[in-house]
Structures are given as structure tokens and as C-alpha cells.
Design a protein that fits this description.
With about 375 residues, the chain is of the alpha/beta class. The protein folds into two domains: about 20-265, Aspartate Aminotransferase, domain 2 (3-Layer(aba) Sandwich); about 265-380, Aspartate Aminotransferase, domain 1, CATH 3.90.1150.10. About 40% of the residues lie in helices and about 15% in strands. It is built from 13 helices and 14 strands. The protein has helices spanning about 15-20, 20-35, 40-55, 75-85, 100-110, 125-135, 160-170, 220-230, 250-265, 265-285, 310-320, 350-360, 370-380, and strands at about 65-70, 90-95, 110-115, 145, 170-175, 185, 190, 195-200, 215-220, 235, 240, 295-300, 305, 360-365. Strand 6 (about 185) and strand 7 (about 190) form a beta hairpin.
């Protein structure tokens, strides 16, 4: 085999379309034939269905979730911050080991990002450092008004101590669930625990559109209503801006596609978990450790991430076997030219974040991987022993 021929891609959003092609094509035709392409029935139905799915495991008596579609996951975060009145004169704590969108959204609203380090095992926000920072904020920064922990790679953060600290200090907690659609803590889905939650619907996500898309959710109906107005120029009455808004709408075609894909999301996550279990078995007894799972959580494996000192060497070895890999993310946010030297960090200085950025790599992970492709990866991993 030619060493450059990839037979096992790291991700393949087209495979998701091909698997669901008849239903997706019918949904697209339905949206196109409706004659209504912005904020119509498809978008409204997706918001209802997504909110229902997200809140399906809520305890009895809990407030129902309300969902608001928007143009992308970055806007979902920015709209949520704006809806909460968080902007200039506020600090928002988040992590540097994330897609740059998380930090970009904070700066979009004029707030100051404060970067907290990560837990070395799970790559999620270090709850202990956050608690310390909320109790004794770094000098010279505006007051901390919100925290955005990121459920990275499909694994939930350690939210309980974070939420307790936020409540104690009057700080809002916004979950970034862009990589963890369907993950849970105990029996409660992430995205229903904080004050609000934000999801990217980028094509490679566990729930992905065939283009850009985003959605946010909150149990606060008043907040959801305000954000829904802000996403369309601040309109509550058509053509009349009650407040300054933006244009960030989920279009009808993407909403129709997402309604189809939402129906298979739980099954798709189960397939991801099965692939992860196969990789775990292949790695057992070898030099690479399987990803750590936080106790009491459901991990949905947006990515299957391993840590290796000689990352280029392993990536080349797998590529020679026709197996593609990826690096999420080659540089942490604070290491990138646009943010380097100007973005405040917590007392740990993002030391664990920097180490992870130099060592992590992602193996192939998407629900349409065939059993033969999974076996091919497992054979290559077993050969590392």
C-alpha cells in the first residue's frame, strides 16, 4: 500500500450525510419547498426538539430548558454573554486548551478573558484553581462575572465545585458543550447544570450540521427571550430594535438537517463509545494510556485523545498504516500569535495546558467508522506494545 494513502480518516462528516442521505435530502427538500428560509418552522421545531432532548433526563420539578438557534457556536457564547449583560468592565474565566472560539467570543463582547489551567488527566478546567481564583481574583482585572468551563473532547468538567464557587461569588456559569452533546454527569446531561449552555453545530461535532450552526440553552425563559431578540437586531417587534442586536440566525435548511441528525444522536454516541472501548483494549498493556474518564460521568468521545512524548513519530507510524490522526490543539490559545503575551492567566500560568498542547493527539473517531477500519486502528495500536 502507498504510505500516503489514507484508508482510515480521522474524521469524515460526509459519511454522516451518506448514512442519512434519504432522510436529509427529504428534510432539505421540505425546507426549500416551504418558501421560508430564515427563522421559520424548521428552526422553531429544532429549538423545541433540542430543548426536549437536552432536558429529557432532568429531575422531576426542574425548570424546562429553552433553546435558541444561532449562526455558530462562537455566536452562541457571545449572545449568551450579551444576554446576561456581560461585556466591557467584566472578566470571564475560561481555559486555554480549547478551540479559540471560546476566547474569541469573550473578546467579541468586550470582556476580558482569564485563562485557568487544566486538569492533567482529563484536559478540563482545573476546578481547584478556579475556586481559588474566584476567592482571590488576580489584581488589576475587572470583576469576574462569568465562568465558561469547556467539556472538552466529550468529557464533562468537574462542575460541582465550580458551580458552588460561582454561586458563592455571584458569578454566572456558562457551559461550553460544543464537544460534548449527550455527555452526562450522573444521570443529568451537561448543558442543563449551569445558568446557560452553548453548543457548536459544526459538521464534525457529535451533532453537526452540513454547514455552520449553533444553539444555546437555558432554563431561564426570560434570558432565552432576550437572547432570541438580540440574535436578530434586538427585534421583539419586526423592524423595531428594542436594544442593540446582531444578525446571527440558524437557517432553515440547516435546522431541517439537524432535526434528522438529532434523532440518531444517542445511537451515534453509543457507537463512539464502542469504538473507544475497542481502542482501550488495544492500548492495554502498552506504552500509551487510554483516556482517563472522570468518575460518575458519561463520556461521548467527540475525540479519542492519547498523550505521547514522540507525537510526530507516532503520527508518521500510523500514517504509514493508512491511519490519519489530528492534533487538537497544536497551540493553546495563550500560545497563539493573536493572544500571546496579552491574555491574563491564573496563578498556575497554564503550565499543564502547555504540556498537553505538546503531547496530545486524536485517533480516528466518528460513528461511521466501519468495524474493519476500527480493527485496523486497533491492530496498529496493539503493535506498539
Amino acid at each position: 500500500m502507498n504510505a500516503t494513502t489514507i484508508t482510515v480518516p480521522q474524521a469524515d462528516p460526509g459519511a454522516g450525510y451518506r448514512r442519512l442521505k434519504p432522510a436529509i435530502d427529504a428534510a432539505v427538500a421540505r425546507a426549500l419547498n416551504s418558501g421560508w428560509y430564515i427563522l421559520g418552522q424548521e428552526g422553531a421545531a429544532f429549538e423545541r426538539e433540542f430543548a426536549g432532548w437536552l432536558g429529557a433526563l432532568l429531575p422531576a420539578g426542574a425548570a424546562p430548558m429553552h433553546a435558541v438557534g444561532c449562526a455558530n457556536g462562537t455566536d452562541a457564547l457571545a449572545l449568551t454573554l450579551r444576554g446576561m449583560g456581560i461585556g466591557p468592565g467584566a472578566t470571564v474565566a475560561t481555559v486555554s486548551h480549547t478551540a479559540v472560539a471560546t476566547v474569541a467570543a469573550i473578546e467579541m463582547v468586550g470582556a476580558t478573558p482569564l485563562l485557568i489551567d487544566i486538569d492533567a488527566d482529563t484536559y478540563t478546567m482545573d476546578a481547584d484553581e478556579l475556586v481559588a481564583v474566584l476567592g482571590d481574583p488576580p489584581p488589576g482585572l475587572p470583576p469576574i462575572r462569568a465562568v465558561i468551563p469547556v467539556h472538552i473532547y466529550g468529557q464533562p468538567c468537574d462542575l460541582d465545585p465550580m458551580l458552588a464557587a460561582c454561586r458563592a461569588h455571584g458569578v454566572m456559569l456558562i457551559e461550553d458543550v460544543s464537544q460534548a452533546h449527550g455527555a452526562a454527569i450522573d444521570t443529568r446531561r451537561v448543558g442543563t447544570i449551569g445558568d446557560a449552555s452553548c453548543f457548536s453545530l459544526y459538521p464534525t461535532k457529535n451533532l453537526g450540521a452540513l454547514g455552520d450552526g449553533g444553539v444555546l440553552a437555558t432554563p431561564d425563559a426570560t434570558l432565552a427571550g432576550r437572547i432570541a431578540a438580540i440574535r436578530q437586531y434586538g427585534w421583539r417587534e419586526r423592524y423595531i430594535s428594542a436594544e442593540v442586536g446582531v444578525n446571527s440566525r440558524l437557517d432553515e435548511v440547516q435546522a431541517a438537517i439537524l432535526r434528522v441528525k438529532l434523532e440518531s444522536l444517542d445511537a451515534d454516541n453509543a457507537r463512539r463509545q464502542a469504538i473507544a472501548a475497542a481502542y482501550d483494549a488495544a492500548l492495554a498493556g502498552g506504552p500509551l494510556a487510554a483516556p482517563v474518564r472522570r468518575a460518575g460521568v458519561t463520556h461521548v468521545f467527540h475525540q479519542y485523545v492519547v498523550r505521547v512524548a514522540d507525537r510526530p513519530g507516532l503520527m508518521a507510524r500510523l500514517r504509514a498504516e493508512g491511519i490519519a490522526t489530528a492534533i487538537h490543539y497544536p497551540q493553546a490559545v495563550h500560545q497563539q500569535p493573536a493572544y500571546r503575551g496579552r491574555t491574563p492567566m491564573g496563578p498556575a500560568g497554564c503550565a499543564e495546558t502547555a504540556r498537553a498542547a505538546a503531547e496530545v493527539m486524536s485517533l480516528p473517531m466518528f460513528p461511521e467508522l466501519t468495524d474493519a477500519q476500527v480493527e485496523r486502528v486497533c491492530v496498529a495500536l496493539s503493535a506498539l506494545r
